[in-house]
Structures are given as C-alpha cells and as structure tokens.
Design brief:
- Two copies of one chain form a homodimer.
- Chain A is about 45% helix and about 15% strand.
- With about 220 residues, the first copy, chain A, is of the alpha/beta class.
- The first copy, chain A, folds into two domains: about 70 residues, Arc Repressor Mutant, subunit A, CATH 1.10.10.10; about 110 residues, Rossmann fold, CATH 3.40.50.720.
- At the A-B interface, α1, α5, β7, β8 and α9 of A face α1, α5, β7, β8 and α9 of B.
- Bound molecules: nicotinamide-adenine-dinucleotide (2 copies).
- Chain A binds a DNA duplex (30 and 30 nucleotides) through α3.
Chain lengths: ~220, ~220
DNA sequence: CAAATATTGTGAAATAAATATCAATATAAG
DNA sequence: CTTATATTGATATTTATTTCACAATATTTG
C-alpha cells in the first residue's frame, strides 16, 4: 500500500481535530464536521479514509473514539516514540522543555551538544556530549532525531546521526539535507516560510489575488 | 500571473541554495547544479524559472549574482520585512533571539505577551503587553506576525492579530487556524511532523517501501 | 570558421491530487 | 412497517504538478 506523505500529514491533523471535537463532547462525527475542523473538504476526508480502509457507518458517520484509535494504530504511535535532540541551543532547548509532545505519546529522552557548558547528565531529560550519541541511540533503540545545530555543522551532524542508526530526522537548519537510502528527512525552514508569507502579502497587495490558505 | 505556494517555496529554497553555492565560489550555475543543491529535478528548476520569466544563457547556465537578485526581487524582500511575535515563551523566545533571519532581510521588531513578568520595554527587541499590539502594528506598518501562544489561546490571539491589520501569520500552535479572506496562515505543527517521520519509519520497516525524501 | 556539444526554454505527455457525483444503505420520521 | 432523508464509499471527472522530450542556441573544440 503506497501512501504519500501529504495524506499521512492529513491523518495526523484529523487525529488532532478529533481530539478537540472529543473534548467538546462529540461522540460521533460526519466527514463534514471533521473536514471543517481540519480545514479540508469532506470528499478529501472520505477519500483519505478509504485509502486506509477506515470505514464509518452510512448515514451514521464515524465514532470519535474508534476513529482516533484507528488513526493512532495506522500512524504507529505504539511502536516508536522516543526522540533525541542534537544541538541544545535556542531552538533545541525550547523543544527539549516542551511538554506538549508527551500527550501525543512522543518522548524527548535526551539532548546532545558539543558545548560542555550545556551538559546536564542528571537532569530529567539529560543533555550529553555528542560523543555518547551513538552508544545512547543504540542502547535505547532510538530511531528519530531532531537536528538543531548551526547550519555549518548540520551536514556533518546528520551523518553522525545516520551512522548511529537514526532513520528519521527533523531538521531545523536552513539547508536541504539529503537523506540516505532508508532515512527520511523533514526540513523545517522558518525563513522560507516567512518569505513565503511576505511574497503572498505583496502579491495580494499588488494584484488583488486571493491568498491560498492551506499549507501543504 | 497565478502562482502557487509550492512554487514560491521552491524559489526561496533556490535562493538559499544559490547563496551556499556562491559561498563555495560558484559564479554561474546550471539548472542541474541548482537542482542537486535544492533537492529537485533540473526540469523543475527550469520550469519554475520559465513561469517567472527568469532566463539564463543557453549552454551558459545562469549567473549566480543575477539569479539571486532576480529571485529576491520576485520574493519582494525589499517591501515587507518587519515581523512581530505574539507569545514569548519557549518557542517565541527562541525565535526572538535568533540572529539568522537578519541576513535574509527579515527583522523581528517586537514581542508581545500577557504575562507582565515577560515585559522588557527597553530591550533591543522589546517585549510589550498585548494591549499595545494594535497601536504598535499600525504605527509600524507590520504585516507579518508569528503566533506562539498556547493552543487554547491561539484562535483568540489570531483574531486580535488580524483585527490589528496583520496579513500573514506563522502559527506554531497545534491547531489549524482559519484565515480571513485576505489573510494567509502558515501552520507549523511539529508534532504532526514527528508523527509523520515515525509513520514512514515503521512503514519502511514493515514493507520495505522506500521513503519519500522531499518535503512539501 | 565549421562542426560538435551542452544546456536552456517550453509545449506536450504523464502522473498525482483533489473534487464532484451518485448508487447503496443506515437511520430517523411518520 | 413504510417512506423519506442524510451520509458513506467508490468511481469518475477535473485540476494541478511534475517530468519528458526536443528544437533553439550559446559555447567550446578542432
Ligand atoms: N532559533 C531559531 O529561532 C531558529 C529559527 C530558524 C532556524 N533555526 C536554525 O536552527 C538551528 C539552531 O538554531 P539555534 O538558534 O538554536 O542555534 P544556537 O546557536 O542557539 O544553538 C546551536 C547549538 O548547537 C550546538 N552545536 C554546535 N555544533 C554542534 C555539533 N557539531 N554537534 C552538536 N552540537 C553542536 C551548540 O553548542 C549550540 O548549543 C540553526 O541551524 C538555525 O539556523 C533556528
Ligand atoms: N516549545 C516547543 O518546542 C513547541 C513545540 C511545538 C509546538 N509548540 C506550540 O507553540 C506554542 C508555544 O509553545 P511554548 O512552549 O513556547 O509555550 P510557553 O507556555 O512557553 O509560552 C507561551 C507564551 O504565551 C504567553 N501567552 C499566553 N496566553 C497569551 C495571550 N492570550 N496573549 C499573548 N501571550 C499569551 C504566555 O505568557 C507565554 O509566555 C504552543 O501552542 C505550543 O503548543 C511549542
């Protein structure tokens, strides 16, 4: 079953939306409700579900709890959830101390840096020397890492991460990292995002063109 | 000229790649070089350029400096570059103190919060009470804002921002914000990104499917 | 200077993604 | 119990995006 990235991203969003709907007291939802909450069309919701074999009840919609569980299962949340961070500076630190991932079952288990001033071996989430990266990752069977080092170090660090067995990297450095064969890399480039906003604001001002509201 | 978001995002990436190539001493590039650096195909590069009327020299490629300038011009970097941040917590603070945007001509000019403990009226980048948001934004003609408040406050704050005249929002709260007619919103959802990585790692482990390496 | 070659620029073709349509059917109403 | 109605699920259609293919044309080579 070949599934594209965009579709999986939407699944995650559906799950988030469902959690909010559940908090509002919803027990069942229709594709239209979910579409509104997630900012897509109802056709899109049903199409995505059909791709994954998620079925509802004709005329009865979907049961919220069942749906959340089904999506959880598909997203594999029970199999890998430990994540490490390399580069505990501004952004690495913010992520390291963010509590919001826990609710979704994602645990930040350690940070790594080369600056001895950052080391905190006995903190709740320890910050360790990069030298210990490989052994830590292998002992703890970590597969996902966040890369938050300066751009000049990013390529080098990514190679260390991949060599240690990391299979997925969320990269904040403003360079386009190339993954190895079986490594998936997600590049978050905030400057590019800001430039993009600026472009569309200018374009709208000049030409009256309506802005696209979706992400991708 | 109707241009889609994806294409503009790629333009930004080309510009980043070009800056790196320039730093490496490149004076001219071929579409293939740029494609490699930006992680796309050479056809894609040429197609994008043709869409914007960017021309090179048959057999001679493109001059790096000219190309950077041309893209800068298209992205409108000289028209809007002041950005404010609402919510100066973990992530807002990291962004507020990030120096990397300056090189690209994007200036973070102020932060806003509702927690008096955060106020720093006389700092280089002042942190001000949210009450002053509207007047500040209007006086300084700000069009772009970063939203980094807790999810429960995000919708409310986005309305304040839009009411004050903000036209582009980079949202870090894990909810799908809906923009008004002429407001463009870019949602950065890091948990969704991590879940996505986890999904593809699991999928690859189970089925041997090759992972997609591009973002979108 | 002529011939060979590499690269652009673009229209056509292929692929992928989103949306619309509608028969099937579960639920609700009478 | 029967009929009316709303919603799913699957297929068809449309739209968007990417890739291909190749003529046009600078540049380099002999
Ligand atoms: N902070 C932001 O808001 C922001 C915004 C956009 C992009 N980024 C990008 O994110 C990355 C991190 O930004 P930051 O502001 O947190 O930087 P920072 O300088 O605050 O932190 C970088 C950290 O990485 C560590 N480091 C350096 N080289 C290392 C190596 N080889 N191995 C391990 N650790 C190493 C440093 O000791 C430091 O602690 C940069 O690439 C930056 O361009 C940051
Ligand atoms: N920190 C991270 O690594 C991270 C990761 C992913 C997502 N996020 C999201 O980013 C947002 C910010 O996260 P954070 O960790 O920085 O949170 P935080 O709690 O550290 O900071 C939030 C800040 O917003 C301020 N605030 C609250 N209500 C406000 C209001 N109505 N108006 C103005 N300011 C207000 C608070 O005083 C605080 O300073 C959250 O929505 C969070 O889910 C954060």
């Amino acid at each position: 079953m070949i599934m594209n990235r965009k579709c999986i991203l939407r699944l995650s969003r559906y799950k988030n939306a469902l959690k909010r709907l559940k908090a509002l007291g919803f027990v069942k939802v229709f594709s239209g409700n979910l579409a509104d909450a997630a900012g897509v069309t109802s056709s899109q919701v049903r199409k995505d579900f059909s791709l994954f074999g998620i079925t509802g009840n004709r005329r009865g919609g979907y049961k919220v709890d069942e749906l959340i569980n089904r999506i959880r299962e598909i997203l594999g949340k029970n199999e890998i959830q430990k994540v490490v961070i390399v580069g505990v500076g501004n952004i690495g630190n913010a992520l390291l101390h963010y509590k919001g991932f826990e609710a979704g079952g994602i645990h930040i288990v350690a940070g790594f840096d080369i600056d001895p001033a950052k080391y905190q071996r006995h903190a709740e989430v320890p910050i360790l020397p990069l030298d210990e990266f490989q052994s830590f990752v292998q002992e703890n069977d970590i597969k996902v890492g966040i890369l938050a080092v300066p751009d000049v170090a990013a390529h080098h660090v990514s190679e260390i991460m991949i060599a240690a067995g990391i299979k997925g990297i969320l990269n904040f450095a403003p360079i386009q990292l190339r993954g190895a064969e079986d490594v998936i890399i997600s590049n978050i480039n905030l400057e590019v995002e800001l430039e993009n906003l600026i472009y569309f604001i200018n374009a709208a001002g000049k030409t009256g063109v309506l802005s696209p509201v979706e992400d991708e």
